[in-house]
Design brief:
The chain is mainly beta. Helices cover about 5% and strands about 35% of the residues. The strands form 2 sheets. Strands 2-12-1-11-10-7-8 form a 7-stranded mixed β-sheet, with no helix packed on it. One of its GO terms (biological process) is positive regulation of canonical NF-kappaB signal transduction.
């Protein structure tokens, strides 16, 4: 047997990619304590906390408008499966946290979707989970965004999209004439 055959099987590690954005990041440097250079291992039984208190939080945001402990991420395995997930919990009494469109008040928690946007105040964090097999630890890989991750878009009110029949006459044409649509046999045209 060769040494390669005798080596233990290498497990892949779940990695949580977090991309941070704040409109004043260049002036206020609130991300200066975050390590954007490399992946960081976190033990599976540890809770990854984010906030401004560096003694209580693994990931410190240097901003007086951020709560001492803003939110936490807990790594866990779903019951009766081999699937690993993250749970996000809002730990701020003053600031609501949104995960995609779900608003979390103090101590509310939900499963983190595999790809989502976490928002509080002017902070936007894109979270993306890269699945792995190891249950001993997970990794975080932090990134810094140059542009907003989420933008409010004011779209003009669009009419509902309805299929247009082969004759090219839209059913909304009849409705605008005050008549109700009727079925027409294509041979009658």
């Amino acid at each position: 047997m060769t040494s390669l055959e005798e080596a233990e099987t290498e497990e892949t590690v779940t990695c949580l990619h977090l991309t941070f954005y704040h409109p004043c990041q260049d002036e206020k440097m609130m991300f200066r304590c975050l390590n954007f250079c490399k992946r960081e291992q976190v033990r599976a039984d540890e809770m990854a906390k984010f906030g401004r208190d560096s003694s209580a939080c693994r990931y410190s945001l240097m901003d007086t408008r951020v709560s001492r402990v803003q939110f936490s991420l807990q790594f866990y395995r779903k019951l009766h499966t081999s699937e690993f997930c993250f749970e996000i919990k809002n730990l701020s009494k003053k600031t609501k946290l949104t995960v995609n469109q779900t608003e979390l008040s103090y101590l509310n928690k939900i499963d983190l979707p595999w790809k989502c946007i976490i928002c509080f105040g002017d902070y936007q964090i894109l979270a993306e989970i890269q699945e792995g097999e190891s249950g001993d630890y997970f990794e975080t890989h932090l990134h810094l965004a140059e542009a907003p991750l989420l933008q409010e878009r004011c779209l003009p009110h669009l009419p509902s999209l309805q299929p247009i029949p082969e004759n090219g006459i839209s059913p909304s044409f009849f409705l605008s004439q005050g008549e109700s649509p009727t079925e027409i046999d294509e041979n009658e045209l």
